[in-house]
């Protein structure tokens, strides 16, 4: 599965393509980063049904991973295996209730369950110990 940096670069190229193919106000991508997930937001506030969007997207969608269709099933399974290792590591380092990742329509979600204080010394120590397995930087 591509890194968040690679996804951002791909989204940036896509936005540039969209602007140069008839959608001059197409917004730049954003990294949405919180304690639970890190994702790339593309086209916030864009009318995805309009002819301007459809025409430009037909030309530009090949710039997105999997031609804009999201990750392949193989990529999702590979990422899930990595994320499971991270969750197991967090549990083995003092966070026994740290959940396994969950698949959703937008991909995989991994992070602490409600009630786990991400600012606690215990969480910070576990995260440091498991840093090499983190699903995102």
Report on this model:
- With 137 residues, this protein is of the alpha+beta class.
- The chain folds into two domains: 4-68, no CATH class; 73-133, no CATH class.
- The chain is 41% helix and 10% strand.
- The protein is built from four helices and four strands, in the order αββααββα.
- The chain has helices spanning 4-20, 51-60, 73-92, 121-129, and strands at 30-33, 38-41, 102-104, 107-109.
- A two-stranded antiparallel ribbon has the order 1-2.
- Helix 1 crosses helix 2 (51-60).
- It is elongated and about 55 Å long.
- The two termini are 14 Å apart.
- The mean pLDDT is 75.
Helix-strand layout with pairing:
Blueprint: H1 4-20, E1 30-33, E2 38-41, H2 51-60, H3 73-92, E3 102-104, E4 107-109, H4 121-129
Helix pairs in contact: 1-2, 3-4
Number of helices: 4
Radius of gyration, whole Å: 18 Å
Helix content: 40-55%
In the predicted model, the low-confidence regions spanning at least 5 consecutive residues are: none
What is the averaged pLDDT score?
Answer: 75
Strand content is 5-15%
Beta-strand segment tally: 4
Assembly state: single chain
Structural class call reads alpha+beta
Q: What letter string, H or E per element, gives the SSE order?
A: HEEHHEEH
């Amino acid at each position: 599965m591509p890194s968040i940096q690679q996804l951002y670069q791909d989204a940036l190229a896509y936005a540039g393509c969209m602007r140069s193919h008839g959608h001059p106000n197409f917004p730049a991508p954003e990294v949405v980063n919180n304690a639970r997930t890190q994702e790339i937001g593309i086209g916030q506030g864009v009318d995805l049904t309009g002819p301007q969007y459809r025409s430009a997207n037909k030309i530009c969608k090949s710039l997105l991973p999997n031609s804009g269709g999201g990750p392949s099933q193989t990529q999702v399974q590979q990422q899930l295996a990595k994320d499971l290792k991270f969750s197991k590591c967090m549990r083995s380092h003092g966070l026994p209730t740290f959940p396994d990742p969950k698949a959703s329509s937008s991909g995989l979600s991994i992070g602490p369950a409600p009630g786990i204080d991400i600012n606690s010394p215990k969480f910070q120590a576990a995260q440091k110990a498991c840093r090499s397995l983190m699903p995102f930087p």
